[in-house]
Amino acid sequence: MAIDLCNKSPGLLAERDPGSWGAAVQSPVLLDDLGTDQREALNFAYRTTLSHVDPRFVAGDPAAWASDFGYALDRVAIRLDNRANDELRRQALHHRDPVMREQALFEYADRDHPDALELLREAIRHDTDREVRWDALWAVEKLGGPEAIETLREFLTDDDPEIAEWARLFTAELQTGDPAFDGRSGLLTPGRTFDETIYLLIHCDLYVRLDDTNTHWGKISLAPQGLARIYGQAHACPNVATRERQLVIAKTIAGLHADGSPHCDNYLFRGFTDRTRRDRGNFFFESLVPRTFFRSGRADDPSEGVRQARIGFARYGTWHLEPKFQVREEAAIRYVRGRFQGWGYVNLARIAGRSLEEILTPGNGVLSTLHDPEVGPMTNAFILGTFKGKLNDWDGDGRIDLNSRDVYSTAEGEIDSDQDGVPDEAGRTCCDYTSQLP
Fold it and tell me: Are 273 and 245 in contact (CB under 8 A)?
């Protein structure tokens, strides 16, 4: 969340030159040229951004505009990543691990340094990992403003079509509030459980309660690949027939199982979708799934005991349809964006004194709940953030792949390791940790 607040405060804008919008946009989009919904969205975003950043700018009831718990925590939390700025800049460009390079980039941007955009631009130009590059483009969008548009426009003709399309998408969102895409055709893979398997980029802040007085808080800002390493890489998996009322988020954690198999962790979400516009859907979904809670704070580690609990999570946002991509006589979802929130447990004793490389390891953090009599008192992390997901060409054939990604889930979220649509075990939505014990 905090990186999204950078450069947004009127006070900060008064202290530094925000740059010229005219220089950032070759053909500026005039407000009068926008549709009614776009004008309303931009005006609403402007008003709410001001009020979230500084409640003195609220017009109206503060209960509606200044009640963001994450913003309140961000103002008081100490950074648990205490690396010096020079070290962050060095690791962002030269660390051998792309996950750590990306983590350094997002941490540096989150600190809102004046040269953050230039560091991101350097990484996008030269990094050898395409995910670092497109995640860094997202960080540029999060910083926002005319300089961000100038930076994004540099990559509109990148040799990697996915980098070019992400740059196009983020530029359009900053200019109009809506995404834009290139003209590639789509490809549906027959015989798959899901009509679409959308690879998600997820950025989140973990606000950790450091003691029982509620007066000391810590913060860890997780870049997309760092979050995926700990909690799992997520895919949004809709089917046209049910996408307006339910969705599976299928996650896999690599490197957790000793035998090399992926750790599968699926979440069935249900909720409402607003379809008053035919080109998109606005949704609010919740998930409530049975999970083994590991008191150690690490997935599949029962050394300190386990507890069976039900874990809740919420996600809300908007998906945008692509009429050119037809699935069962309906337009496919080409892009999704939104926010999410939930609860977690961070074993502070496990991370105390350790380097970030030792902290960002598979499964080293678990989701939690406040509603269980044993797990609730251990819950110490408030998790919230943003997500984006776009259909990509994964095999380089020039066509957008709608549902080619491997996800190990049935349509109801049960584990399906051979992807035949039949659950390995009826009702099981997460790997059985006992099968991995020595």
Answer: yes
Token pair in block for residue 130: 């395409």
Contact criterion met (CB below 8 Å) for 389 and 238: no
Instruction: Tell me the C-alpha distance between 140 and 116, whole Å.
Output: 9
When pLDDT is cut at 50, 70 and 90, the band that residue 28 belongs to is low
- The whole domain housing 122 covers 2-176
CA distance from start to end of the chain = 40
Segment (H or E) for 217: strand 217-222
How wide is the angle at C-alpha 107 spanned by C-alphas 104 and 109, nearest 5°? 105
Q: Are residues 144 and 202 in the same domain?
A: no
Per the structure, the count of domains in the chain is 2
Residue 251 pLDDT more than 50?
yes
Q: In the block, which residue shows the tokens 């230039």?
A: 118
The three-class DSSP label of residue 435 is helix
Instruction: Give Cβ neighbours of residue 267 (< 8 Å, ≥ 6 apart).
Output: 248, 249, 250, 251, 287, 289, 313, 413, 429
Query: Which among 267, 283, 271, 278 has a CA at the least distance from the CA of 339?
Result: 283
164 in the same domain as 197: no
* Neighbour tally for 245: CB within 10 Å: 13
Is 220 in contact with 204 (CB distance < 8 Å)? no
Is 39 strand, coil or helix?
helix
CB 268 within 8 A of CB 246: yes
Residue 56: pLDDT band with limits 50, 70, 90: very low
382, two tokens: 């408030």
184 close to 398: Cβ distance less than 8 angstroms: yes
Per-residue exposure over 83-102, b if at least 16 CB sit within 10 Å of its own CB, e if not? beeeebbebbeebeebbbbb
Question: Average pLDDT in the 21-38 region?
Answer: 61
Say how far residue 351 (Cα) sits from the centre of its chain. 23
Instruction: Give the C-alpha separation, 309 to 366, whole Å.
Output: 12
Query: Is residue 166 a part of any domain in this protein?
Result: yes
pTM of the model: 0.91
12 assigned to some structural domain: yes
